Amino acid sequence: MPPSATGPDGQVETRRCFFVNQVRNFSAAEDGKIVVHASHRSAFELTAVGYCRDIDWANQVAIQPLAGESRLCVDNLADLVVRPLGGSADRCRIRVTRSLTEAEIEAL
What we know:
By secondary structure, the chain is mainly β. 6% of the residues lie in helices and 51% in strands. It contains 1 helix and 10 strands; from the N terminus they run ββββββββββα. The relative contact order is 0.23. InterPro entries: DUF6491. It holds the Pfam family DUF6491.
C-alpha cells in the first residue's frame, strides 16, 4: 500500500510512488527538470537540488535512491547519474517533485 499523509483539508492523500526498476524512459523538461516514465501510464517530474550539469542534454540517466530503497515517492531525494552523449557521467541530487496528471502524460 502506498504511503499516505493528511492534506491541508484533513483528507488523507495517497503519496504517489514508483519503483526505480520500472522506469522505462525519460525526457528533459525545463529548468533543471526531467520527466521519468514508469509503468502503468505514470510519469514523475524530478527536479535537481542545486546545479546538475548536462541534465538538459542527457543521453542516459540512472536513478539511485538513497539508503538502498527501491521505490521513490513524491518529495523523496535520490541521486541521478547523468551521462550526456559523448561525455562522462556526473552525479547530482534530485527530488521527486510530483506525479504528472493523465492530461500531462497524454501531452508528452
